[in-house]
Amino acid sequence: MKWLPLLDQYDDLANLQQYCSQCRRCGLRDNARGVVFGDGDPGARLMFVGEAPGADEDRLGKPFVGAAGQLLEKIMGSVELQRSDVYIANIAKCRPPGNRLPNQEEAEACFVYLVRQIELIQPRMIVCLGGLATQYLVHKDARVTLVRGNVYEKGSIKIIPTFHPSAILRDANKKKPVWDDFKKIKELYDQT
Ligand code: URA
Question: Could you say which of 3.40.50.10240, 1.10.10.10, 3.40.50.80, 3.40.470.10 is the CATH number of the domain covering 11-191?
Fold first, then answer.
């Protein structure tokens, strides 16, 4: 993996976003309308990390604004969390063609931006939405089915994996575990 030590010079989200908007570290930008950098409160205590933008996100330039995003907001609302309380980003910031998952090369090329976003936002908690975020933020071999709802600590940040909202849209049996995870997330959030 090629790291970008020079990202240290981007000392706020606005100038990091400006730099990221010109990124060509992988081929995804060739087919995407633009970079979907992230959205929300730059001082948020809680961050959500998903996979990659889909068609709606690519069109509107914001993460989680399509069907999965609407469901995410509904789940957050059920534990009295607003979208404006949190910061939302993805592992890959450009839409992969056909809504496939980003491949390893693409995810690794983009991960440096997420790392810098985390350094700048300094959240107390990160919720990994789905397997890809869990593998990048918890452990490369982690399986979200096995680790969801657990609380991992990286430095001062608590990391909690749960299923991706798209997984609930495909399989209603995942609804209850995700609601349970969000109750735990809210309890921890209220303590931070
Ligand atoms: N799914 C994701 O993982 N991220 C988005 O931004 C939208 C859908």
Answer: 3.40.470.10
